[in-house]
Amino acid sequence: MPAETAPPRRGRGPLRRILLAVAQAVTGLVLLAVLFRTLGTESARSAVGVLSPLTVVLALLAGLVATAAQAQRWRLVARSRGARIGFREALGECWAAGLVNLLLPGGVTGDAVRVLRRRRRGDTWPGAGGSVVGERLAGTSVLLAAGVVPALAVGPWVAAAFGAGALAVGAIAWRATSGSPARDRAAVWCLSVLAWACYQGLFLLAALRTAPQAPLPDLWGTTVLGLAGMSVPVGVGGWGPREGITTLAAMAHGLPAATGFAISLGYGLLALISALPGAVVLARWLLPVPRIPA
């Protein structure tokens, strides 16, 4: 009977999610361990050298602009699905989700929290989930599209894969905004490009600080592919796949493998700093609010 078979299904679901998260984290850690064993720990010291008062401020500014762009993009996608989200609320939710995504395996846990919180505010499951998935995929399509030309240094088939992925993901995101006017749809992709430019700028900043003598076109191609590598849902906060892809991209552009590894580690530190304001939002959610007696 359905009443007897439902509980086992609910039990298996959380267990599968836990096992998947563990597998993602272990895969990323193993990949990092292999890179450290192969290339040594000097890359980590070079990555720490990326940090300075100026780069910390730039990371926070880039995080603010990128998160604001994502928040407005989310509002537009949600509006196309009949939901209204205030900008301040969207900004806080996106900032907190970004930090959670960087701290937990898979890179989507924070977005799942966004869906749950919108559901508690009265949105339907398709509406809440569709708006979050649609806005995230719009950003992913830009990541992949930007990597098409740099991927030619690796091979034509890699560039073709990037292009096919961008078209497929972009088509899903486009469908998610089917109820929007043309200007809102255009704004979704313009905001996606703005958010991408902020994080790409941070990646390039890490590259310039790590390898200032390297040719700028090679650093650009390496970092664009490295940023696209963060769309792989493995590891914790992108750590692991990003380093592996950036290392391979650096070699394809004629740079030493250790340089690509160090660039990626440096960007990882800047990306974490850019998301730190999300900790304030999380603290407001998690810490009890003192009640003032009437």
From TrEMBL:
Transmembrane regions: 18-36, 48-69, 154-174, 186-207, 219-240, 261-287
Principal location listed in the UniProt entry: membrane
Intracellular or extracellular location(s): Cell membrane
Keyword entries, A-Z: Cell membrane, Membrane, Transmembrane, Transmembrane helix
Keyword Zinc: no
Domain of life of the native organism: Bacteria
Entry protein name: Dolichol-P-glucose synthetase-like protein
Membrane topology of this protein: Multi-pass membrane protein
The UniProt record lists the keyword Ribosomal protein: no
One Pfam entry name: LPG_synthase_TM
Cellular component per GO, a single term: plasma membrane
